[in-house]
Amino acid sequence: MFPTPLAKTSRQWQISYQVLLPIMLIIWLLPLIAVANFSIKPESDFVNGNYWGMPSSFEALNNYGKVFFESNMPRYLWNSLFITIPTVIGAVALSCMAGFALGVYKFKGNLLIFFIFIAGNFVPFQILMVPVRDLTVNLNLYDTKTGLVLFHIAFQTGFCTLFMRNFIRALPFPLIEAARVEGIAEWKIFLYVVLPLMKPALAALAVLIFTFIWNDYFWAVVLTQGPDAQPVTAGITEFNSQFRAAYHLMSAGSIVAALPPVAMFFLMQKHFIAGLTLGAVK
Amino acid sequence: MSVSPAVPSTRASQPQRGWYKRNEIAITPWLFLLPAMIFFAVYVIIPIGQSFWISLHEWDGLGEKTWVGTSNYERLLGWGDANIDRKFEVSFWNNLRWLVLYLLAIPAGLFIALFLNQTVTGIRFYKSMFFFPFVISQVVVGLVFSWFYLPREGLLNAILGFFGAGPINVLGDPTLATYGIIAAGLWPQTAYCMILYLTGLNAVDPEQVEAARLDGAKGHKMLWYVILPQLKPATFIAFVVTIIGALRSFDLISVMTNGGPFGSTRVLSFYMFEESLSEFGFRMGFGAAIAVVLFFIMLGFITYFLYSMYRDEKGAR
What we know:
- The structure holds two protein chains of two kinds.
- By secondary structure, chain A is mainly alpha-helical.
- In chain A, 74% of the residues lie in helices and 0% in strands.
- Chain A has 15 helices and no strands.
- Chain B has two domains: 50-84 and 277-317, no CATH class; 93-265, MetI-like fold (Orthogonal Bundle).
- Helix content of chain B is 68%, strand content 1%.
- Chain B has helices spanning 10-13, 19-22, 24-54, 71-77, 86-102, 105-116, 123-131, 138-148, 155-162, 177-202, 206-214, 219-230, 232-248, 251-256, 268-276, 284-316; strands at 57-58, 66-67.
């Protein structure tokens, strides 16, 4: 193990490490702590110049209540949910199938198609922006959740296919051969042999895509406008102009907007990190 | 008397297998690929070509496209007798700043990973707390940092004031604003690199480390000659995601400064968006031309990434 395990180091360093750890963490999260502190302060603290000290009274309920009951925030949150969940399902389903095809079968063009999926995943969004916006307008899907979902599914399929294909590659191939010898149809092999083995990959991808899509901002502003379809990342600007310079409310709003992926991460930590670090170890 | 062979008629007991059944192994992969390929082609592959086409036109996004040949590029890059587009120049240099400074996330991530790679009680909690800025949306990161930088209310100036420096208005100063935004971007990016390295460190071969230790290697020598070579796959991924992240920077700029002050924080991705969907009419052709330039910058990196992956893929066979 590197660096040297703490147990084998001097007593001095052991103690300083234990002290350093929380200090480093506080410094690391300082901007966030400041905002969390903002969000539970009363408005009067900002008038009196008490920006960073302890809140003079604890107003969390009040501030967060305003976010939920006196703004469009709940609508934006719903929109985000109705954009994110269908995208996760769609992208995972498509890429499961594509990953199965690319991981199990040998055919001409296999590697080429695989690399097109990877390459597409790296292109700058801007080169897609004008045509995709145009297509969405022509399909009458501009400013709808569906329009956003369709694009997200398509784009995420690139990354997901890379992920799924590599995962399926690592599965024991004799299992599939044995099923073939038994005369089982190929689609049944996918459904009953491969799919059950892919559960960890499915979980990892689902949480990753959930986070990516929830946090998307660029496509939200390109393909939607207004509270009918906009997700919370784009809606927060409208929220902030409603509460201009009311830092206690704006920070409460941002924390609410950021919370779902954070909760997802803490609940599904193992899968999330497994997905994110795929390929970091050979 | 006819003697019929004692072979049952094949037709009756074993019906002719259908065309699909006979070609199952050849057809199935294409059936499985089809939905993903259609989606990907319609929304990703074809639009790339369309952007090239649009960049040769003048177009407001609604009416007819007017063919203008390469004049969008001439205006942008200053070919012929035109001067280079000022905003393009600023954006391009800012993109370079992003690329170079964003790479700091890799050593910073490695440093934190080395710091946290211990087994003390509660270390799992610390690891996830260090990582979780990555999960927050860039929009919120942008907001958090713009409040952190506020000249009066921001915590940064409170800290600077404590040491007798400041106050500085990071996002209001054209020479500082871009660096302020990059610093905000480095926060989640460092967390990402950290988690890659933590996973990599976990897989480092303990026998090699012990052997090197017996040979008297320690500290930075051990890190450089024994540990880093084993972290190569993690470094490669950290490099890929950091480069892509740097060139995709849009959210933070849009939220924190909206390109200002005086356009000093524009990058190509932001400039493209601004031109295509600007309040003064949509200039989709010009925007597409910027996107094409950005695409070619990215293409250099994409080719390198794909080449590395292709080499690994060949090696795995």
